[in-house]
Amino acid sequence: MAGMQAPRGTRDILPTEVSYWQQIEGIARQILHQAAFQEIRTPLFEQTELFQRGIGEATDIVGKEMYTFTDRGGRSLTLRPEGTASVVRAYIEHGFQAQGGIQRLWYTGPMFRYERPQAGRYRQFHQLGVEVLGTHSPRADAEVIALGLDILKALGLGDVTLMLNSVGSREDRQRYRQALVDYLTPFRDELDPDSQTRLERNPLRILDSKDPKTQAIAQDAPQLLAYLAPASAEHFEQVQQYLTDLGITYTINPCLVRGLDYYTHTAFEFQQLDLNQEATVCGGGRYDHLVSELGGPETPAVGWAMGLERLILLLQAQQVAPEIHLDFYVVAKGDTAERQALKLAQQLRHLEFAVEQDLSGSAFGKQMKRADRSGAKLCLIIGETEATQQTVQVKALRTSEQTLISQAKLVHNRAQLQQWLNGAGLELP
Ligand code: ATP
Ligand code: MG
Fold it and tell me: Where does the UniProt annotation place the signal sequence (predicted)?
């Protein structure tokens, strides 16, 4: 088959990019571990009904973005477009609520949405998300927001903007909905086509439209914040107070809505505003009715999901390049030398050093050029002479300093090697 390509909207993550992924996963794993979150892994596909009920028929995701197929047994299955519904399904299925207390879960992995591909928007993309289930406390809202920010900061992306809003309770929204429809109806013909259909089905989502004209109209719409019942307003006040206590600044954006019925109260996004591509790297909020909506007991919850491809675009734009870690590059030519090099590389790896050996068999000059490009600190060279004497030339690639040592001694003095790697001169004791 000639000219096979990865399917539209998918991409290979090549070795030069993988280090960014490992960096993000490593940092997130550590920060979430410190905050007592536990990882959960759910299947890549679920019964279609889970997403229909969990995300909602009126949403873009369910309406037009799902990869749905019928399997050989006639079941309707869907590649997961997001993580929360699956986590909640698992929470109910395994009776987590019966274990009492609060569950703090995180996940990462690929998600699938049939969207128009562009920079930062793919059909297979990756999210990392957290969910705290079992508490109404606004402290949980503040804690997950702070964790998200901690992860972004640890990655060197501290200058993101936190956009914050409250979408109130279901009852608050019911009262607001009518006021919004009354305001928007006279503008009906000026709204983008999606928003026109939403006017009946899901008018709140119109506030979230990306169409400039619709956005301008939405700017002057009545604000949901004015329709919050006292208890909802207090929850929102407290979240803000806790964020302030944590030294976290935010911008209240009354147009920020999560358009699903089960979303309640806090809604937030982290945005990189000076980026002309997709700006939102992380979105989340409170979803106090999703667990019951999916058949579990009333369980309030709050969480967020980060888009990893967008994070990586930001990291690359800011040139926060992850470090290459390579200690030794081993260069050898000739049968005996190459056999010794093979063994030396393994011995050094058993001492927990990172070692690459040149397998090309090409001329020394070429191998040395690759050593220079490899990012290794030290080059180990075995030529014919060294092979006969069972010695090895050690070369510091930054300073070009060089010394000769027996192969046996080299692997028997780990502390010495570590000193050399730390940049000390290559003197022998
Ligand atoms: P958008 O409005 O950009 O479509 P969304 O509201 O659909 O985002 P969420 O469902 O909240 O996004 O997902 C959380 C995060 O996942 C987003 O903030 C974004 O960083 C990332 N994300 C969502 N869809 C995609 C996609 N198709 N490709 C890459 N990343 C995505
Ligand atoms: Mg979307």
Answer: none
Q: Show me where the domains of the chain are located.
A: 15-169+229-317, 328-421
- Backbone dihedral angles phi then psi of residue 409, each to the nearest 5 degrees: -65, -40
Residue 283 structure tokens = 């979105």
Take atom 7 of ligand 1 and give the residue whose Cα is closest. Answer: 61
Ligand 1 in contact with 282 (CB < 6 A)? yes
Q: Where on the phi/psi map is residue 222: left (φ > 0), alpha (ψ -120 to 50), or beta?
A: beta
Smallest CA separation from ligand 1 atom 22, residue: 307
Structure-block tokens of residue 139: 């402290």
What global pTM score does this model have?
0.85
* Per-residue pLDDT tens over the stretch 170-226: 999 999 999 999 999 999 999 999 899 888 888 888 988 888 999 899 889 999 999
Q: Which two tokens stand for residue 276?
A: 């002309």
pLDDT digits (tens, 9 = 90+) for 53-99: 999 887 889 989 999 999 999 999 999 999 999 999 999 999 998 87
Question: 411 with 393: CB under 8 angstroms?
Answer: no
Which residues of the chain fall short of a pLDDT of 70? 1-2, 259, 274-278, 320-323, 429
Please check whether residue 236 is in contact with residue 243, taking contact to mean a CB–CB distance below 8 angstroms. Answer: no
Q: Where are the beta strands (DSSP E) in 113-263?
A: 124-133, 161-166, 251-252
- Within 35-74, residue ranges assigned H as helices are 48-55, 60
CATH-assigned architecture of domain 328-421: 3-Layer(aba) Sandwich (3.40)
- Between the CA of 282 and the centroid of ligand 1 the distance, in Å, is 8
> How far, in Å, CA of 375 to CA of 35, rounded?
35
Q: Which residues of 313-348 are buried (b: 16+ CB within 10 A; e: fewer)?
A: bbbeeeeeebeeebbbbbbbbbeebbebbeebbebb
Q: What topology is assigned to 15-169+229-317 in CATH?
A: BirA Bifunctional Protein; domain 2 (3.30.930)
Binding site residue list for L-histidine: 82-84, 113, 127, 131, 258, 262-263
Q: Is 129 in the pocket of ligand 1 (CB under 6 A)?
A: no
State the distance from the centre of ligand 1 to the C-alpha of 40, rounded, in angstroms: 20
